[in-house]
Structures are given as C-alpha cells and as structure tokens.
Amino acid sequence: MERAATELKEAEGDNVSVSCDGSWHRRGFVSKNGVATCLSVSKKVPAKVIDTETLSNYCDSCAKMKAKNLSAEKKNIWSEKHKELCQKNHDGSAGSMEPVGMGRIFKRSEGRHGLKYATYLGDGDSKSYKFVSEADPPI
User: H/E/C letters for each residue in 17-82?
Assistant: First the structure.
C-alpha cells in the first residue's frame, strides 16, 4: 500500500482522488467484522489499494472472560493485560463500520502517505461520504 501511495503521489501530486467502499464478514448489518478500503484513482497509474481499516465490534477472548465467574478485581487485572491484544476496535453497529473506517483512513492520509484525498468516489449506498465531509474537525 505504501508503494501504491508513492506511485499515486508521483503521478498526481499531493491532492488525489480516491475510490472508497466497505465490506462486511456477513451480509446485512449484523456482522461483527468489517473493512473499509481506499483505492487510488488516476488516469496515469492503475488503481491500487492505498489504505484499509479493519473494524470489529467483538472480541472472543473478552466474551469468554465476561462469562467466567471471577471477581471484578481479577477481571480488571486480565483486562489491563488484554488491552493490547483485544480484537474489538469499534463500539458501534456493523452499519457504522464503513463510515468510521473511512474517517480513520482520511484522518491519517497526510501523515501516513503525504496525500490529501481531495475527491471522493463512492458507490452511493453508504454514509461514509457524509461522515467524512462533515467531520469535526474537518478532514
């Protein structure tokens, strides 16, 4: 992805167009896992994935620990050790994964790739464009 971003920057400069979409592990809005993907858009170089954000609103280890009959103190100790390994990185619904993922991708674009995503191409079936365009502070 780093090479793809560098290639895009060399071809188009800092302000670039991107195509964005999201997908889920399961159909509908019941999935526990989703991914937001951002692809390069250019007439000069082929489209390539330049960034992704994987989201999960579930962690199997956390669910198993929650079911155990342990003291709050033991659960807190486990939780502190588990934070770095926890699979859950999203607190919302499956339907909010795509916009949240796109927001994260757009926020880090300049720091990670030195690119400003100036034009957003989407499939029109998500809330991602609205989420990114109305972000506060602006992205």
Answer: EEEEEEEECCCCCCCCEEEEEEEEECCCCCCCEEEEEEEECCCHHHHHHHHCCCCHHHHHHHHHHH
Q: Kindly report, residue by residue over 29-84, the tens digit of the pLDDT.
A: 679 999 999 999 999 999 999 999 999 999 999 999 989 999 999 999 999 999 99
pTM of the model: 0.87
**Bridging pattern class, strands 116-121 and 49-56:** unpaired
Q: Which residues of 21-52 are buried (b: 16+ CB within 10 A; e: fewer)?
A: bbebeeeeeebbbbbbbbbbbeeeeeeeebbe
What is the residue type of 132?
A: V
Handedness of CA 57, 21, 14, 113 (dihedral sign): positive
Helices 60-67 and 72-82: crossing angle in degrees, nearest 10, is 170
At 86, list the tokens. Answer: 């926890």
